């Protein structure tokens, strides 16, 4: 069974859901949407920074051949659009 995402990992998703909710409101509040987008973007960047730092930390423990495998895997992942990113607003 998969662990629940940490609060810091779920913030970007929650922010995107909030943007969608705000867009559906009968009365459009551009400032609220813009503020929510800014918070969501900041949460996305923070999550990316944590991921990148973890990759660097992990890579320091690897041999050169294993770092090559890691790079190859990351390159494949970057070329394959995920289902999560295709549903982003």
Helix and strand arrangement:
Elements: H1 7-24, H2 30-59, H3 64-79, H4 83-86
Share of β-strand residues: under 5%
Low-pLDDT windows of residues: none
SS elements, strand count = 0
**Termini separation:** 29 Å
Using only CA atoms, what is the Rg?
17 Å
Largest sheet descriptor: none
Number of H- or I-type helical stretches: 4
Mean pLDDT: 87
Shape: elongated
State the assembly state of the protein chains: single chain
The secondary-structure class comes to: mainly alpha
Q: What's the structural domain tally?
A: 1
Write the element-wise H/E pattern from the N-terminal end onward.
HHHH
Structural descriptors:
mainly alpha, 76% helix
Please provide a written account of the structure.
It is a single chain. With 89 residues, this protein is mainly alpha-helical. It has one domain. The protein is 76% helix and 0% strand. It contains 4 helices and no strands. Helix 1 (7-24) packs antiparallel against helix 2 (30-59). The longest helix has 30 residues, at 30-59. The model has no long low-confidence stretch (mean pLDDT 87).
